[in-house]
């Protein structure tokens, strides 16, 4: 059994682990998904970059990095978090360190039948979701979005005033000094999804083909009110990309066409049958359909 990371002294400005968090953990560690990920990211391929978008408490990122050998079949996974909430970015590192330390402690005490290694935590970036990331850079993306329908999206936090208010105070004092309105606004960022709860998610979906690598896989959480079937149909209708060998004429690398079909499947569900709160996890990925000289690309 894989342990859920602890989130000690979680500040009130950070969305706590909830049903949606645990559904993602259960889905990603299920036999079906671990089998898919282990085969998708073969140990002989380059180290995968894992992105936890809207990382919040860091529970999902910590869980995946602490259990990379079980979930990905390899330990050289690189983990990155992104969040608008500066408090979350400061907090997540401690959760990741704690989860990975527990694995190392288990190795030392012989609790596991063999020693396990953990993935590498890179950083938690304070940014507005995707624009800060390079095209084709992400191999596995996890997104637990603000999915609750709301009249409008909350505005972005004022980064400058946040830094000025925090300056010269200890971490504990800084977290405890947040006023009610400020705390409510930061929490609202984590759940208010605008019209149909899909305004933020639609932004992600529009940018996903750019962001994901050729082997990239995205896991996106949705609720019933988000129009799950419409999302599935939209992704499946994306046009496959055509890629060619990069060296140009006379380079010794053959040009080739490579088509790919976008796939989207529900791979996890909360099991509820009534109300908008029914949650599902959708896996989105390219199904590679290689033509002639496919080995040229596969070897790169």
| Radius of gyration, in angstroms, nearest whole number | 20 Å
C-alpha geometry? globular
User: With helices defined by DSSP (H or I, 4 residues minimum), what is the helix count?
Assistant: 11
Q: What structural class do the secondary elements suggest?
A: alpha/beta
The average pLDDT is 79
Order of helices and strands: HHEHHEHEEHHHHEHEEH
How many strand elements?
7
Give the strand content. Answer: 15-25%
Q: Provide the spatial order of strands within the biggest beta sheet.
A: 3-2-1-4-5-7-6
Work out the helicity level. 25-40%
- Alpha-carbon distance between the two ends: 36 Å
Write the layout of secondary structure elements.
Blueprint: H1 19-28, H2 31-40, E1 49-53, H3 59-66, H4 68-71, E2 78-83, H5 86-109, E3 120-126, E4 138-143, H6 159-166, H7 171-176, H8 180-191, H9 199-211, E5 212-223, H10 228-236, E6 258-269, E7 279-290, H11 294-298
Parallel strand pairs: 1-2, 1-4, 2-3, 4-5
Antiparallel strand pairs: 5-7, 6-7
């Amino acid at each position: 059994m894989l342990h859920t990371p602890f989130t000690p002294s979680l500040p009130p400005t950070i969305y706590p682990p909830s049903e949606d968090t645990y559904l993602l953990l259960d889905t990603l560690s299920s036999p079906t998904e671990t089998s898919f990920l282990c085969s998708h990211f073969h140990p002989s391929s380059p180290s995968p970059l894992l992105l936890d978008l809207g990382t919040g408490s860091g529970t999902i990122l910590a869980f995946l990095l602490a259990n990379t050998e079980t979930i990905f079949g390899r330990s050289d996974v690189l983990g990155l978090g992104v969040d608008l909430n500066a408090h979350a970015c400061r907090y997540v590192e401690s959760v990741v360190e704690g989860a990975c330390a527990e694995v190392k402690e288990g190795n030392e005490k012989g609790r596991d039948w063999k020693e396990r290694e953990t993935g590498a935590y890179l950083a938690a970036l304070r940014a507005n979701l995707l624009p800060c990331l390079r095209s084709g850079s992400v191999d596995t993306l996890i997104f637990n979005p603000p999915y609750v329908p709301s009249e409008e999206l909350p505005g972005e936090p004022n980064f400058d005033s946040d830094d000025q208010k925090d300056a010269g105070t200890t971490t504990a004092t800084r977290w405890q000094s947040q006023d009610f309105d400020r705390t409510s606004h930061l929490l609202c960022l984590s759940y208010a999804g605008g019209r149909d709860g899909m305004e933020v998610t639609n932004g992600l979906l529009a940018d996903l083909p750019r962001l994901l690598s050729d082997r990239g896989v995205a896991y996106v959480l949705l609720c019933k009110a988000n129009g799950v079937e419409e999302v599935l149909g939209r992704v499946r209708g994306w046009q496959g990309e055509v890629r060619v060998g990069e060296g140009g004429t006379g380079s010794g690398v053959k040009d080739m066409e490579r088509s790919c079909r976008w796939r989207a499947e529900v791979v996890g569900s909360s099991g509820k049958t009534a109300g908008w709160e029914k949650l599902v996890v959708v896996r989105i990925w390219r199904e590679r359909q290689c033509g002639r000289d496919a080995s040229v690309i596969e070897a790169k």
